[in-house]
Amino acid sequence: MKIIETKIPGCVVIEPAVFGDARGAFYETWNAERFAEHGLPTRFVQSNVSTSSQGVLRGLHYQWPRPQGKLISVLEGEVYDVAVDIRHGSPTFGQWEAVILSAENKRQLWIPEGFAHGFVTLSERVVFHYLCTDVYVKEADAGLRWNDAELAIDWPVVTPLLSDKDARAPFLSEIAPNRLPQYLP
Question: What are the tens digits of pLDDT across the range 78-114?
């Protein structure tokens, strides 16, 4: 596998080694030994799958005080996937990284704890998969506005399909520092 560093330390793109022939292809989406060699997590406690139609934007979501690291992949279709550093005190606070993930490119995105996450579906349909380092806790569920002008995320859509919760999420500047993950150097 190949690790591609992003501009935000700790947030990386993973390109698996793909072995294919006329019958199809095989690749590992997670291997504890290989991940450990690269300083990536080796323990996940929850696996999630969601489906979305074209133009659906989910996010930007995070959990606090029970943060989740997420290993993201797409099993069908294509998404524009975004991670935002919301760790209070981080030198990259408020910065974001985006990557195209698809069934075709087989790329994954590792998003460490302390980041908000969202994606928009670019294809007609997407099957989205992610492993989490902690379980979902309803009381810790939080989010921030997808189109926060201070973040200036370059989304490839103007009028996405949103849930009511995502449409009403607060802007980052409206969230009290004690409701955000803390940066630990």
Answer: 999 999 999 999 999 999 999 999 999 999 999 999 9
Choosing from 61, 62, 80, 117, the catalytic residue is: 61
Domains: count for the chain: 1
| Residue 130 falls in the annotated catalytic set | yes
**CATH number (domain holding residue 18):** 2.60.120.10
Burial environment of residue 90 by CB neighbours within 10 A (0 to 12, 13 to 18, 19 or more) = buried
Measured CA to CA, the distance from residue 63 to residue 31 in angstroms comes to: 25
Question: Which is the catalytic residue, given 117, 130, 136, 183?
Answer: 130
- 61 annotated active-site: yes
Q: Which of 59, 53, 44 is nearest to 133 (CA)?
A: 44
